[in-house]
Design brief:
Length: 370
């Protein structure tokens, strides 16, 4: 057994799950920042089977049991939907392996929470968009995720991170940070604070419509970056949506908007040179076309008309969060240089401002994609 990790009991942890074969090798896998991930190789006679073994970060996800209930129930629902459409449920969704006690996760003696998924072979994960086709395919995949789960009772899911995309709460957190100003930084970011406060009404647009029942509550992924999709290594087609830890009740506009925020910007999220940051309208339309097609008629006309607002609001919300963290002393987001969260704030707000300039063009692009 080869294992290279700070955890000494990996073999014992792996052996507690219903694996096809005996654990033979456990090695660190991937470059995720939240959970500890390992590739688990099992052997049974001449055949071998691979799994993903993961320790859930319970500092971020305070209720791992509720999280895994979400993941298990959603993937079981997806598996059924994929089978009904003649797809391959072993490759097109994550598959949870239960423990020998029939549970979806294991708690070890150190109170670490562990889970196992079947490893999906012959796939690639893209860290950035390499061409418009990749962006389109990711949009179709996230739209397909929405469509496959459109009949799922979203209100039965746990909120793994409460109020995650509740923009009014994010705005109030910023207001409190400005008022308290624990690091004495408010004076140096008055322009950013004014920008945020001038758009307070925007923070309430989507949540107000949800509360009025005009927007449907849906199962949302809430972290729709392109690196949360597995692409088939042979066909380069989007195959499977992964990283379901933040699957929660929410709005389709959250998933759409977060993809635009991260994928249709011409600059990096922390680009110091704001002249390099704007909305790429071509990429916006590419993603919109793929997302609407993937949703396959499951979106309401109001949801479609509000797609630009989803993009603006998720970008604005991210700016609120970065600015709040900067004022609070950089306690949430990891920073790698001085004023890193301030750079992130400014890129998000520059992108918001550019969306406002291009609002009519964004609306026209959505109408072309209907």
């Amino acid at each position: 057994m080869h294992q290279n990790s700070a955890f000494e009991n990996l073999e014992a942890v792996a052996s507690a799950f219903c694996l096809d074969g005996e654990p033979e090798e456990i090695t660190p896998y991937g470059n995720g920042h939240i959970n500890d991930t390992f590739l688990l190789l099992c052997r049974k006679g001449e055949s071998e089977k691979k799994y993903i073994l993961q320790r859930i970060n319970s500092a971020i996800f305070r209720e791992p049991g509720a999280l895994m209930e979400n993941v298990a129930n959603v993937t079981a629902f997806l598996r059924k939907a994929i089978v009904e459409k003649g797809g391959d449920p072993d490759r097109e969704t994550l598959n949870v392996i239960k423990t020998k006690d029939g549970e979806n996760y294991l708690v070890d003696s150190q109170q670490n929470y562990w889970r196992v998924f079947v490893f999906i072979s012959n796939t690639v994960c893209l860290e950035k968009i390499e061409n418009p086709r990749d962006f389109y395919d990711s949009a179709a995949a996230f739209g397909g995720f929405q469509n496959q789960l459109s009949a799922y009772p979203a209100d039965t899911l746990h909120e793994t991170i409460p109020l995650f995309h509740h923009t009014p709460s994010r705005f109030e957190a910023l207001r409190n940070a400005v008022k308290q100003d624990p690091m004495g930084r408010a004076g140096m970011v008055r322009a950013e604070i004014d920008f945020a406060f001038a758009r307070e009404k925007d923070a309430h647009v989507l949540t107000d419509l949800l509360e009025k029942g005009e927007l449907p509550l849906r199962v949302t992924h809430n972290d729709t970056k392109i690196n949360n999709i597995l692409f088939d290594a042979s066909t380069r087609k989007a195959l499977c949506v992964i990283d379901l830890d933040t699957v929660m009740p929410g709005l389709s506009l959250y998933d759409f908007g977060d993809s635009i925020r991260t994928g249709a910007s011409t600059g990096a999220e922390d680009e110091p040179d704001l002249s390099r940051v704007e909305l790429d309208l071509s990429l916006f339309e590419t993603f919109t076309e793929g997302f609407i097609k993937g949703c396959a008629g499951s979106l309401t006309p109001l949801e479609i008309s509000l797609l630009p607002m989803g993009a603006k609001l998720m970008t604005y919300e991210s700016g609120l969060r970065f600015l709040t963290d900067f004022l609070s002393g950089d306690t949430y987001f990891k920073i790698h240089r001085k004023n890193h969260n301030l750079d992130r704030t400014r890129t998000q707000f520059k992108l918001v401002a550019d969306m406002e300039k291009k609002w009519d063009e964004m609306a026209a692009a959505v109408n072309r994609c209907r």
